[in-house]
Amino acid sequence: MKKLLTLAAFVIVTSVAAQSSWRMGISAGAFGNHSQFNGGMQNANALFTQSHFGSPGLGLVFRKTINNHLSFQTGLNFRQMGFEYTMARNYNLTKPMSHYMVNRVGMATASIPATLIWNFNPNCKNVRWFVGGGLSLVGVGAQVRDRDVDAGEDAPSGLSGNDFLSQTVTPGSTLVLNGHLMGGFEKMMKKGGMWSLAMWLNRGFAPVAYSDVTYSVNGTLYNHSFKNYNHYAGLTLTYYFKNFKSGTAPVKK
Question: How far is CA 94 from the centre of its chain?
Fold first, then answer.
C-alpha cells in the first residue's frame, strides 16, 4: 500500500513539474470522522457516549485550469480517522476538562484525490465560488491497537474504582476508493497566488477499521462494536502559488 501511494505521488509531482499550466498549493484543515454501530449490545449505559473523531489535516495540492470555468485538482493529503468514546462523570466546575473519561484511538490515512471543479464567474473583488466532486485513493494504516482507561482514583465521581473503558481496533480494507464533494470560494491575488476556503464531504464504500469497546459501570459490563468507512466532513484553507512558469492573471468574466 505504501509503495503504491509513493509511486502515485511521484508520478503526479513529476508530471505536474513538467507542465507550466499547473499551479501548486498547500492546505491545512480540520475534519470530523464518524463511525457507526456494527453489533454487540444495542442498549448502552447513560454514562457512555460514542463521539465523532476530530483531527487536523495537511495536504499538497496541484490545480490545472482547463478553461475559465473548469479545473482539475489532485495531490496528496494526510489526516487521521478513528474511534472515540467517553464516560461522563461528576466533576469540579473549575476543571471542566475532567467531565469525561476519554478513550481515543486514531489511524493515519493518506489519500490521492482526483477532483473536477466548476468555477463560477468572479465578482468585482476577484472572489469566485466553486463546486466540485471526484474520487480518492485512500490508504489506511493497518495495525491492531488496544487502549484501556481505568476509573482508578476517580471512583468518587460516580464510577467504582474497578470500572474501565477499553477498546480494540482492528483494520479492515487498507486501500480503498472514496467519493467526495467539495464547495467554497477563492480569492485571486494580484501577484498570481490564490486563497481557497472549501468544505468537504467524504464517503467511503467499504469499512476500513472496526472497534470493539467494553466498559464497566458500577460492576456491570457492556460491549459494543463499531465500524468506520472513513466518512467525514471538514474545512480546508489552501494557498495556491502562482503558475509554475509565470504569474497568472485574475480570471475575467
Answer: 32
